């Protein structure tokens, strides 16, 4: 995944771009980049590998090495960007967010024109942002080019373009699966994935782009190039996990949604579980914590932090490339509060259960430190499909998903014809899946948020939410 930030001001924007992009560090850890434009110098760009480091460390040189009144910055888990492009549309810098599932098909189609080439990466891969730029450059304007790219891409595409005439063009993907928000101050305009990033820099909310909307702004003007489309399908996973607590999408704050979400799960449990036997409720840090707080408040069971993540050493930016190393890091992060674990019946809320690898490690860790029993709740429904739009719950193989593996163990491929039953914890198949996971992970009980509960906690219509990874509804 990833996030981006941009600003056009009456004065130098380096500080805004530095902090604004840095405030998106929770969304990705692979690479980051910044591009700025100055009338005398022109376009300037810096890109860095972010493995085992932070945005601030890699880009602190910007304050003395770059200047400009317009700029963009991004941090992502895909390919290095922003890229600097020279085309018939002019010179510009571009960064993108989203997922292109038909990249190879589009590359072959462009190469067949015999007048296009791509810079090949290791293994012959093509930078997806370069592919997007190539698609945009086929049209006579940025607006037409972005719309064309969004139409031919299977997946999703948000775009930021820094032009060579002191303007920034921002486009939200055509179904609005990701947020793109505009801020305004007496200095100029800004754009971001996370709106708290520009609020910390003195901007106020000006507007949230609608699905497929394209705007262009300078230091003193904002122009709509393409009006928003009617169909909205924003990713519901944003609120349960990826979104930062202080951010708001479509008028719904992330932290507030998580409290509501936990409270709804507690109400569901009151009907099906004797909570009198639970000593403490806790969240799997960090994003599971507010869900757990909402659960504890609604269930009248004390909320505690039975273990803490040691982030001074193992920061979010330190994510090893392979699963075995990630498991070790996850284990080393967890520091127990022994007095809150030993001989206690604990109920934990996690933001989601994807592969189940780290969940198993957490459960084993709790029992090793003396827990009497461990109950687990997931703040979203069972994840049954790999995300094809945003890389949110993406797996190379859907059989990596815990739910899929469990269904295969229970009744083989026939079980995949009954996904809806497995999602529902009240059906026989749903109960069997939960019981099997409990058996494998040594859980006293397991339940997932219902689809109805998730939608209610967000507060938007189900028709306006993408729930593909749960029920394949786009």
From TrEMBL:
Pfam families: GATase_7. Mg(2+) binds at residues 287, 350-351. Its cofactor is Mg(2+); [4Fe-4S] cluster. The keyword Iron applies. GO terms for biological process: 'de novo' IMP biosynthetic process; purine nucleobase biosynthetic process. CDD domains: PRTases_typeI (cd06223). Pathway: Purine metabolism; IMP biosynthesis via de novo pathway; N(1)-(5-phospho-D-ribosyl)glycinamide from 5-phospho-alpha-D-ribose 1-diphosphate: step 1/2. Gene3D superfamilies: 3.40.50.2020, Glutamine Phosphoribosylpyrophosphate, subunit 1, domain 1 (3.60.20.10). PROSITE patterns: GATASE_TYPE_2. Its EC number is 2.4.2.14. Keywords: Glutamine amidotransferase, Glycosyltransferase, Iron, Iron-sulfur, Magnesium, Metal-binding, Purine biosynthesis, Transferase. [4Fe-4S] cluster binds at residues 235, 387, 466, 469. It comes from the Bacteria. GO terms for molecular function: amidophosphoribosyltransferase activity; iron-sulfur cluster binding; metal ion binding. In the C-terminal section; belongs to the purine/pyrimidine phosphoribosyltransferase family. This is Amidophosphoribosyltransferase. It comes from Criibacterium bergeronii.
